[in-house]
Specification:
The complex is a heterodimer. By secondary structure, chain A is of the alpha+beta class. Chain A is built from 18 helices and 31 strands. In chain A, helix 6 packs across helix 7, helix 9 runs parallel beside helix 10 and helix 13 packs parallel to helix 14. Classes of the chains: A alpha+beta, B alpha+beta. Chains A and B meet through helix 1 and helix 16 of A and helix 2, helix 3, helix 4 and helix 5 of B.
Amino acid sequence: MSPTTTAPRFVRADGPDKVTGSGRYTADLTLTGALVAKFKYAEVSHARITKLDVSAARAIPGVFAVLTQDDVPDVRFGPFVQDRTLFARDVVRFEGEILAAVAAVDVPTAQRALNAIVVEYAPLPVVNDIEAALSPDAPLVHADWSDYGAAGPIVRDRNDASMASIAKGDVDKGMAEADVVVHSRYVADGCHAAPIEPRAVLAQWEGNKVTIWTSTQVPFDARAGVCETLELPANRVRIIVPHLGGGFGGKCGFHYEAHVAALARATKRPVRLVFSRREEFVAPDRRREGIVFDLETGVRRDGTITARKVWLAIDNGAYTADAGFFSQLAAMHALGPYQVPHAFAEAHLVYTNHQPSGSVRAPTAPQTCWALESHTDEVAKAIGMDPVEFRLKNAVATGKEGPSGQVYDEIGLVDCIRAAADGAGYGQALPDDEAIGVAIGWWPSFSVPSGAYVKIDGDGSGQIITGAQECGTGAVMTLRQLVADELGMQAEDFELVYQDTSVAPYDMGATGSQTLFNNGRAAVAAAGQIAEQLKQLAAEQLEANPADIVLADGAASVAGTPSRSVPIAELAGIAAGGELLIGHGSGAPPAPPEVVGATCVGDVGMTAWVAPQFSCHAVRVKVDRDTGVARVLHVSAAHDSGTIINPVGATGQVEGAVLMGIGQALTEGTRYDDEAKQRNAALLEYKLQTCADAPPIDIHFVEIDTPNAGPRGAKGLAEAPNVATAAAISNAIAAIIGTPVRQLPMTAERVWSTVNGIEGSPA
Amino acid sequence: MISYTLNVNGIDYPVAADQGRNLLSVLRTEVGLTGTKEGCDDCECGACMVLLDGQPVNSCSYLAVQAQGRAVTTVEGLQQGDEMHPLQRNILEEGGVQCGFCTPGMLVSACALLERNPSPSEEDVRIGLSGNLCRCTGYAKIVKAVQRTAAELQS
């Protein structure tokens, strides 16, 4: 299929707001009489609360409320395991857990109130190591784990909050058929989404209804959380998201909306919360998870994979948040986009006393790809085969069966490998401190319900009213073009009304790279209804058959007779006096493909992927052996994300995700002290990539005619380019220094230690 | 609490605030211009960058009272009337804006850069903007926008 590109230069509809400073983000808002919210945090990682006395704090003049778990409905919540309460109850399990919330007239008064809260603890043993937490005699993070409710398929045991396996064929038989079996261990540290906007919430009650302005990526999910924890019906909670200053998954899920709403209800005043950068690092249940990997692959001398066996343990942190599906998802990534006849994967999501993990841009995938693809280069090396040749031979391809038994329709992974390698000049002679590393990755498209309305008013101007959420990607901005094209109008004819749960129908939000895939389908369906109305109206005006009417260039014309034409604006004026031009759309989400030949424990539907996305990154790296400093010189990124509808937005996603991947590869990792507290919760100690660090990035889109894709054959894109970068960097470093660095991030200290054969792990 | 005057984007604003308040907080609350953003309150991210007599400073770590008698320029002051500054137009057209939260500080930094170096090399631009963190774009389109602006302003 040829690329169906739209405007040559796409200028986003929210752009002028954002470059002039007129756009409002949540922290830019306030209301008359608004109070300041502050949280009292546990500051210890695991302890029983023996005393929590807020009476002195409540007595301070200017303090309007101090709330604890005693002041809100006693609800345990969580989308997969109901293991959390709004405020700590009896036990604190990580340093950023909230004990109490204060509403006061100003920041100094709120701070005095926090200082006046008396809390005493009896220490409990700190669970600081993922593997140790799985031992039968490990201290329990949740002593009452077996009393918790959980989603149906979730399999749990003590500190194991979600166990999953994928089994295909007979892995022992497959290993026995191998000429060589390669075994590797890798350990990835956790890291952070780190959007530049710290989160903020503003809540106001009117009667029994609450309006909450909040920096969430998922307004409907946030609403559901407020409804569940404060025991309110959905139609009395309105979530509005002003401009959102980035998320990368970090602002998915339900966070502090209910705390602030509870404060506003208790004080009968608007209440406003704005996070500091330190809070942004320590408190949210959305950190990228650390993972320990044990990987084994059997291979024949000719390069055929005979079997793969993986074991992995994911750091869940203290509460499960949305990580319940991570074990099965990571198991898929650990088996990888390869033709593996005999496969067995076992994955555990393990409670520790760390900050809870949650969806950050392609959860589990970059770390798991890093481990698997580093292992894959070890496998290729063991049989003396070129790593690109090895991948071309074993990667999943159209009509071939993947590791979970899914047989793939039209996919473009092999083309991605060739495009990325060619784009990097793979095979060229390089200095001995440089190499090109190659890695392949994949990511699902998420097929879920979504809704939108479209209306055209009497003057011919239109509005798209959508539940979709814009976090910066531009996916919502693209809806204007999709709708305009359905109606033969211009994108500029439409304004977007979005990010308001009381105005628009449901959408899952800026998560799972799903906006264009699902809400695009919804918006096109809504526009289609109006197109039918316009054709009917035009047929009456032009005395023609509605089936013969064509909508193009702002007019409705009779096919083949362009002179018989009426402007759409004129039809809109007629409609305004009769049946109004209103469309609503959802469209049926594509069903998941069939999986054969694999059995799964803890099956949460992650083994069969609709319209899967594929990628290959080839990265040229230079390593200074004396200092261990690795520098990325060039990235060649090839992606099969189906049809690219908005090239400016799409290349922007790849460039941003690749740079985030470079950070994850080299500098971004959370370090814990012996008490399971973060040692580098600040942007000077947790280093994001700067403009001066960023290498040139060449992008190649492999546009495939994908069955069951989104509008015009589009798949998702926002997460996929974050998957393979760290892995490719790892393979380049290993090629230069002769052995892989087995810890992520591959900091200068760790590279240097590996060069010098020093055992153990520099933090 | 002390009273003083701040000149912001060419307008004198009377301010009454504690003398310990930083310029960022006074701009956002007392002056009422929220275009300048707070990302870290610790000089780490650059989202709060403004110009003081044409020099870029992180307003989170600069006392507001020290800005008395100096010309403060924020992102709201880059436009000439209804006309966008070429940097604003070009960063949009190149696709250098995603979430937009770093954008005001980035634009202010870029303005200062072009003021002191009207024809910067790519390396100059990358170093000049390295005090402004962007998590969305990977910087490539921002760098292009600055280079394009420099070329336009030169011709």
